[in-house]
Amino acid sequence: MTTKTRAVTVKQFPGTSNAEQRRSFLRDIGRGLNVDRPCLVLDCSARIEMDRHDLFLLLCCLEEAMKRNGDVRLAGVTPEARAVLQSTGVDRLFKIFDSIAEGEGSFRRGPAVLASLEATHRESHRASENRTSDHGAPENAA
Questions:
Q1: Domains of the chain with CATH codes
Q2: pTM (2 decimals)?
Q3: Sign of CA dihedral 107, 109, 113, 116
Q4: 60, 30 contact by CB (below 8 A)
């Protein structure tokens, strides 16, 4: 039995961009995804915050990958950018990892291992949010 390892492409998500830079980035992504079932990890560490243009660019990247039966993972997302992704619901469309290596490795693991890692990551993230959030008195408990 032969197992086939898919190549994982890692791209730096633009730190700052204007309309022309976003179009150029998307063209570059499209050229790089000309394979069946592309695996793309976007390194978002250079992007401190995300605006609506960045969200649209992320969604366009995901669309290009999905057209070819592939997927996009995000890595190195800052807390500020993660808050924007969560508030808009875009975080539910992507698997988000702390490092590029974790993002790349997620394509190489079986579904059961990946689900376990994601659950552990979510619990870890919730625990860190609970430690840093202000715990006031409970709201109307009646």
A1: 8-132 (3.30.750.24)
A2: 0.73
A3: negative
A4: no
Strands 39-43 and 8-12: parallel
15: DSSP letter: S
Q: Which of 49, 58, 57, 52 is nearest to 78 (CA)?
A: 49
SS3 content of the chain, % helix, strand, coil (to 5): 55, 15, 35
Residue 20 identity:
E
- The CA distances from residue 111 to 53, 105, 108, 117, 125, in Å, are 32, 12, 9, 10, 21
pLDDT tens digits, one per residue of 60-94? 999 999 999 999 999 999 999 999 999 999 999 99
Closest CA to 11 of 51, 64, 52, 53: 64
The model's confidence at residue 141, banded by pLDDT at 50, 70 and 90, is very low
